[in-house]
């Protein structure tokens, strides 16, 4: 089995956009991820939190036909934690996914006696900032050599 991760995708408004759900379905269809569970969390303008299963929404039928969670592992505690990150009047799609693309490498690592000792999620904005800083340093070094 590849690494498993809980991802919380937050959106403005109290309804998910079909395009977001379709993108998740495409990842599953392409064999990139296996969706283990999903949960929709809504934080109303008044701050009330509600949850529902993704498959309960008729407008996502085409997208969810490829998704269907295998087990219900995400629960009320997970929803409350996700809701803490939401602004009033917004929603989130919680996904418990297996990174299938990494499963083969994980098997080889285990067969060699290794193990995944830890992982750290690096936010994309940090990567962009580091790349920008590197480019600026390289440009400054190039100007300094001239």
Folded structure, characterized:
The chain has 146 residues and is α+β, with helices and mostly antiparallel strands. It is built from 5 helices and 4 strands. A hairpin with a 5-residue loop joins β2 (33-43) and β3 (49-52). The mean pLDDT is 86.
Entry summary:
With 146 residues, the chain is of the alpha+beta class.
Give unreliable regions as ranges.
none
The assigned structural class equals: alpha+beta
Beta-strand percentage?
A: 15-25%
Largest sheet: 4 strands, antiparallel
Distance, first to last CA: 53 Å
Work out the radius of gyration. Answer: 20 Å
Average pLDDT over all residues: 86
Give the tally of β-strands. Answer: 4
Q: State the helical fraction.
A: 25-40%
The gross shape turns out to be globular
Strand order within the widest beta sheet: 1-4-2-3
Question: What key attributes describe this structure?
Answer:
four-stranded antiparallel β-sheet, 146 residues, 38% helix
């Amino acid at each position: 089995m590849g690494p498993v991760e809980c991802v919380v995708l937050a959106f403005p408004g109290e309804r998910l956009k079909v395009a977001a759900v379709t993108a998740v379905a495409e990842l599953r269809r392409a064999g990139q991820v296996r969706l283990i569970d999903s949960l929709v969390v809504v934080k109303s303008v008044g701050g009330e939190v509600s949850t529902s299963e993704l498959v309960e929404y008729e407008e996502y039928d085409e997208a969810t036909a490829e998704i269907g969670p295998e087990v219900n592992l995400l629960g009320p505690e997970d929803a409350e934690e996700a809701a803490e990150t939401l602004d009033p009047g917004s929603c989130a799609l919680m996904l418990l996914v297996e990174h299938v693309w990494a499963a083969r490498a994980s098997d080889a690592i285990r067969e060699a006696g290794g193990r995944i000792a830890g992982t750290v999620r690096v936010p994309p904005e940090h990567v962009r900032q580091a790349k920008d800083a590197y480019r600026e340093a390289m440009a400054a070094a190039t100007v300094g050599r001239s």
